[in-house]
């Protein structure tokens, strides 16, 4: 979907935003089950007072006229769902009105909301059943490029995803227009678990030497994707991102896929990366970047090279045709020119946050050394498969350090709910841990009490157990 500054109004219209009247959902929850013997800390409350922006998110099965598979589930009849766009600092109130035949939630990926608003079923809320609603309420800050999606089972890979843009009041780069590009891997059937441990929630005992695809093939299994999409469009029907010569264009890239590690390239132009996971960085010019599921990059492109240029997002762990869009000058229809296969690629070491996280000087108060690995029936953190896994317990105010060592051959995009973390000189919420003993360390400040999921954002890895709770204790 093409987005411009008018999209806030369009979104509100499209979503049939109600007034700021009474809440119909349950805004708070009682204590969910807590197996720990240690008393847990009380989460922050969501903001009170009137909301600045209200909207309704309506998940439902795709209609036949949409051209999507009948197994696809979408938000507000759009795929991806309509972009939710709000000014930084607004109190946002979103009613989830569940039109699905199954229970669901919404997770605001990357936004450090109060814990009861985080949308993790069984951890931060009871999910909304069919026909039920739940009202989310949070302050839209800090500014950045986010997305929202279901956090129930494999629903993200059924299509329940949409961009969330929190507009900066004072951007550190100037630009004339902007686009959002949502990259996704599309299934034309209902998603199925890929690993033995995940069928109907049961985790069967010993799978022996491993079933099909197990054992030594615990490599990068992916579902049978029908296509890689950019803004819901297949490669043979690309969206045109219109520009004029001399303009500077901001492009917000969201990897909303469930299992795809993308490499993004643009023909004829360098891309200057300005934000990583929504947080501003010192601008750095590159020819390509890679990102894992859950990561976002914003770039600016100076339109100084008239023509029609391909924007390609190639699966580094798949064989589908690349997702595709076109950078198109003045509505021209010249044949698209492909990007070069070579050039400078972004690395995490290039990212320097303009606002580092305060309070992380000195040595950490608490350190976790975690091994990422493949088990017989799924993916593990330190040998355990969530939910049969020990919570990582921390206390408010602590400087926490997490080191992840990847003993598997595949990448794991690890995502922390409720917090940004410092990784090198970057501030992010999702970081790819490379395969073959790749090691990544991040630090965060424990400033948002509650129970938070920390997990691989490859949905199939998550489903098979590659997650832990980070739990604040007294
Ligand atoms: Cu993973």
Using the CA coordinates, give the radius of gyration.
Answer: 21 Å
Q: What is the CATH architecture descriptor of the largest domain?
A: Sandwich
Main sheet makeup: 6 strands, mixed
For the largest beta sheet, what order do the strands appear in spatially? Answer: 11-10-13-18-15-16
Bound molecules: copper (II) ion
Give the overall shape: globular
The total domain count is 3
Mean pLDDT: 89
Number of beta strands: 31
Low-confidence segments: 1-31, 198-217
SS summary, helix count? 2
What distance lies between the first and last C-alpha atoms, to the nearest angstrom? 46 Å
Q: What's the CATH C level of the largest domain?
A: Mainly Beta
- Counting helices, strands and paired strands, the structural category is mainly beta
Work out the oligomeric state of the chains in this entry.
single chain
CATH superfamily of the largest domain: Cupredoxins -  blue copper proteins
What is the helix fraction of residues, given as a range? under 10%
> What proportion strand?
35-45%
CATH topology label of the largest domain: Immunoglobulin-like
């Amino acid at each position: 979907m093409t987005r411009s500054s008018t999209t806030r109004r369009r979104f509100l219209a499209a979503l049939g935003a109600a007034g700021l009247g009474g809440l119909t959902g349950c805004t708070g929850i009682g204590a969910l089950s807590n197996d720990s013997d240690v008393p847990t800390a009380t989460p922050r409350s969501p903001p009170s007072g009137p909301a600045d922006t209200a909207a309704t998110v309506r998940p439902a099965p795709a209609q036949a006229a949409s051209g999507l598979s009948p197994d696809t589930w979408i938000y507000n009849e759009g795929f991806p769902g309509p972009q939710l766009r709000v000014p930084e600092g607004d109190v946002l109130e979103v009613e989830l009105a569940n039109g699905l035949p199954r229970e669901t939630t919404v997770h605001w990926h990357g936004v450090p909301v109060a814990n009861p608003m985080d949308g993790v079923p069984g951890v931060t809320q009871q999910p909304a059943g069919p026909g039920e609603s739940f009202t989310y309420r949070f302050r839209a800050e800090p500014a950045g490029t986010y997305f929202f999606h279901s956090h129930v089972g494999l629903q993200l890979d059924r299509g329940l995803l949409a961009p969330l843009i929190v507009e900066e009041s004072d951007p550190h780069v100037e630009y004339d227009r902007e686009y959002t590009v949502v990259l996704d891997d599309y299934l034309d059937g209902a998603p199925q678990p890929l690993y033995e441990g995940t069928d109907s929630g049961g985790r069967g005992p010993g799978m022996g030497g491993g079933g099909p695809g197990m054992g030594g093939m615990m490599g990068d299994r992916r579902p049978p994707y029908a296509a890689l999409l950019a803004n819901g469009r297949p490669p043979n029907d690309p969206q045109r991102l219109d520009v004029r010569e001399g303009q500077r264009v901001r492009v917000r890239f969201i990897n909303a896929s469930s299992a795809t590690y993308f490499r993004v390239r643009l023909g004829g132009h360098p891309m200057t990366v300005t934000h990583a996971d929504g947080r501003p960085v010192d601008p750095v010019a590159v020819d390509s970047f890679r990102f894992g599921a859950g990561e976002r990059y914003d770039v600016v492109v100076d339109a100084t090279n008239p023509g029609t240029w391909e924007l390609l997002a190639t699966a580094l762990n798949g064989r589908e045709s690349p997702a595709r869009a076109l950078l198109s000058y003045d509505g021209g229809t010249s044949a698209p020119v492909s990007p070069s296969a070579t050039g400078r690629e972004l690395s995490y070491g290039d990212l320097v946050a303009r606002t580092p996280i305060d309070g992380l000087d000195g040595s950490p108060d608490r350190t976790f050394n975690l091994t990422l690995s493949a088990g017989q029936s799924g993916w593990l953190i330190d040998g355990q498969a969530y939910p049969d896994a020990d919570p990582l317990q921390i206390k408010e105010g602590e400087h926490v350090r997490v080191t992840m060592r990847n003993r598997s051959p595949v990448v794991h995009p690890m995502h922390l709910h409720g917090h940004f973390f410092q990784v090198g000189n970057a501030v992010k919420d999702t970081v790819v841990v490379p395969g073959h003993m790749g090691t990544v360390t991040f630090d965060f400040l424990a400033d948002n009490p509650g129970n938070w999921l920390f997990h691989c954002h490859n949905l199939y890895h998550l489903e098979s157990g590659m997650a832990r709770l980070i739990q604040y204790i007294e």
